[in-house]
Amino acid sequence: MPTGTVAPIAQLRLIGSGPRADDEDGLDSYSQVVVGVAERVTPSVANLRVARRVRGGRVLEGGGSGVVITPDGFLVTSAHVVEGTTGTGQASFADGSDVEFAVIGADLLSDLAVLRLGGGGAFTAAELGDAEQLRVGQLVVAIGNPHGFAGSVTAGVVSALGRSLPTRSGATVRVVDNVIQTDAALNPGNSGGALADGRGRVVGINTAVAGVGLGLAVPINAATRQIIGALMNEGRFRRAYLGIAGQQRPLPPRLARELGRTGCVEVGEVVDDAPAARAGLRPGDLIVAVDGQPVETMGELQRLLVGERIGASVTFTVGRHERILDVVVVPHELAA
After folding, report:
1. For residue 7, is it within any domain?
2. Domains of the chain: total
3. Residue 272 domain-assigned?
4. Which of 44, 107, 110, 111 is catalytic?
5. Which of 152, 159, 191, 197 is catalytic?
6. Is pLDDT above 80 for 172?
7. Is 177 a catalytic residue?
């Protein structure tokens, strides 16, 4: 080979080898964010060890993760992590400390539970954010403490918002709405751990693995803050019960023009002798407002059925046979 051809080939190899400077800068920036979030949130994330009684009197060990939310030792975790347990357990932190905890309250219909650490120590509390501010494609970091592997960290992006997660408590089935979907890997034992944004604020509580590369987290927002606050103060979250099954549907054109909106909740089934039946709600009724607040989805209807409406007269504005009328319902408390 002529010597004159060697230099250009060598030069091409030198130019084409190795990452570009701007790629290195981007990787460094990404790493710095993830490392910063991990360092900030990991001290607040605990590995939870619990015992469950099963058939035959046997006791099985289980666990998950939890997130400290107050310096005096309140934690939030997934309700399914502590469901069916003895009500106590051990929490281990990344610094090696091991603390007993007690279950203060759990709400299976939101898959959230609140625990209280013992010992009277001062704990590192995570900062809670607002999942309503998240955007698809935004960086998020999942931090758990599965099986004692302290500070297990995975990073990814918000894959989708507004997902739904079916939950059950006894015979009652409910949908947790506005669930966060992420591709940050979730492993067994990560349930109850933190999903944090790029500033280290906890915007979700990891709850489920939906498939390969798909994880779900219950959002931290105004609705779930209300649930967490009720569990901290009262040990339970009260919901109003109507006794209907419904679904979202478009309004008929004439009613849509009259009301200036397009959606409603259609009553599909009314439970015999339930508050809705006694008030005169019927299958086929189109719920468009509750006490004057517009309703277009089951999620909006569920959010309005809070404890304050239990035993109170609640006005449901419904469409029936192309007419608008008001039906007054007195909801009962939904049995736990």
Report:
1. no
2. 2
3. yes
4. 111
5. 191
6. no
7. no
Q: Is 164 assigned a catalytic role?
A: no
pLDDT digits (tens, 9 = 90+) for 88-120: 999 999 988 999 999 999 998 899 999 999 987
- Is the residue at 76 inside a domain? no
111 assigned to active site: yes
For the stretch 42-54, pLDDT in tens is 999 999 999 877 6
- Say whether both 268 and 311 belong to one domain: yes
Residue 17: pLDDT over 50: no
Of the residues 199, 225, 251, the one at which a domain ends: 225
Alpha carbon 170 to its chain's center: 20
Q: How far apart are CA 96 and CA 77, in angstroms?
A: 20
Tell me which residue range forms the domain holding 262: 240-333
CATH number of the domain within which 142 lies: 2.40.10.10
Three-state SS for 131-157 is HHHCCCCCEEEEEECHHHCCCEEEEEE
**What's the whole-model pTM score?**
0.78
